TrEMBL record:
Annotated catalysed reactions: nitrate + a quinol = a quinone + nitrite + H2O
Gene3D superfamilies: Transmembrane di-heme cytochromes, Chain C
Source species: Pseudaquabacterium pictum
Subunit: Dimer of heterotrimers each composed of an alpha, a beta and a gamma chain. Alpha and beta are catalytic chains; gamma chains are involved in binding the enzyme complex to the cytoplasmic membrane.
One function term, GO molecular function aspect: heme binding
Main location class: membrane
Domain spans labelled NarG-like: 6-226
Residues engaged in binding heme b 1: H56, H205
Protein name per its UniProtKB record: nitrate reductase (quinone)
UniProt-listed Enzyme Commission number(s): 1.7.5.1
C-alpha cells in the first residue's frame, strides 16, 4: 500500500501531465479535423442553453478557483485573509459554483443519454468523459461538509495546497496526502485522470477557448477593397456580348 500510495501521488501526476501536454500537441499536429467540441445544438436545442451555460460558467469558476486557491503560497494570501477565512470562502463560493456546474452537467448528460438522435451521433468517449466529470463533481461536492467542519483549523487545506505546490516545483511529497479523508484523495486522483484522458476526448477544445485570448493583443487586420482593372470610360461588358 505504501508503494501504491507513493506511485499515485509522486509519479502518477507527472505521467498525467506529460500525456496532457504531449498528447494535446500530437493531436493538434496530426488530427486537426477532430479538434472540436462536437456540439449537438443542431439536433436539439432543448436543455442545451441552460445546461451549457451552467456547466461552462461553473467549471471555469472551479478551475480558476482551484488553480489560484491551491497554488497561491500561504504567505502571499495571508496578507489579505487568514487561512480559516480563505477556506470558508472556498467552501461557500466553490459550493455554489460546484452545484450550478453539477446541475448543468446533469442536464447535458441527460439529453445525451435519453435523446435517441443525440445518443446515436455521440461517440463513446463523449459519454464517458461526461460521466467522469459528473462523478468528479459529485465527489468534490461530498468534500464540502468535511471542509466546512475544518474551517476553524484548516490543516487539510494547507496540506493539500503544500502538496500541489510541491508538484509544480518538482518536489512531490506523498506523505502530505497520507491520512487525509478518502474523498479528498479520490477527488485528486480522478482530477489527475481527467488530465490523462484530456487529449483523447472532446475536452481538447478547451485549448481553443484559451487561445482566443490572443485576439485581445494581436494587431488589427487590414482589409482593403478589391478594385476591378477597368478603365473609367469603359463600362462592363453586357450580358450576351
Amino acid at each position: 500500500m505504501n508503494t501504491l500510495h507513493n506511485f499515485a501521488f509522486n509519479v502518477y501526476p507527472y505521467l498525467c501531465l506529460a500525456v496532457f501536454f504531449m498528447g494535446s500537441l500530437a493531436r493538434f499536429d496530426r488530427d486537426q479535423y477532430t479538434w472540436k467540441s462536437d456540439s449537438s445544438q443542431l439536433l436539439r436545442k432543448g436543455q442545451l442553453r441552460w445546461g451549457s451555460n451552467l456547466f461552462h460558467g461553473g467549471i471555469l469558476f472551479l478551475f480558476f478557483g482551484h488553480l489560484f486557491g491551491q497554488l497561491t503560497p500561504h504567505w502571499l494570501y495571508e496578507l489579505f485573509v487568514t487561512a480559516p477565512q480563505k477556506q470558508l470562502l472556498a467552501v461557500v463560493a466553490g459550493g455554489v459554483a460546484g452545484l450550478l456546474c453539477f446541475i448543468g452537467l446533469s442536464l447535458l448528460l441527460h439529453r445525451r443519454l435519453f435523446d435517441d438522435r443525440i445518443r446515436l451521433t455521440s461517440h463513446r468517449t463523449d459519454i464517458a468523459i461526461l460521466l467522469i466529470l459528473w462523478v468528479q463533481l459529485a465527489i468534490g461536492l461530498s468534500t464540502l461538509p468535511s471542509s466546512l467542519h475544518h474551517v476553524s483549523e484548516p490543516t487539510t487545506m494547507l496540506r493539500l495546497a503544500e502538496y500541489l505546490q510541491g508538484i509544480v516545483l518538482m518536489q512531490p511529497n506523498a506523505a502530505l496526502v497520507a491520512g487525509i479523508e478518502w474523498h479528498f484523495q479520490a477527488h485528486m486522483l480522478l482530477g489527475m485522470t481527467i488530465f490523462l484522458l484530456f487529449p483523447f476526448s472532446r475536452l481538447v477544445h478547451v485549448w481553443s477557448g484559451f487561445g482566443t485570448l490572443a485576439y485581445l493583443v494581436r494587431p488589427y487586420q487590414m482589409v482593403r477593397a478589391r478594385r476591378l482593372n477597368v478603365p473609367v470610360n469603359q463600362g462592363l461588358p453586357r450580358r450576351g456580348s
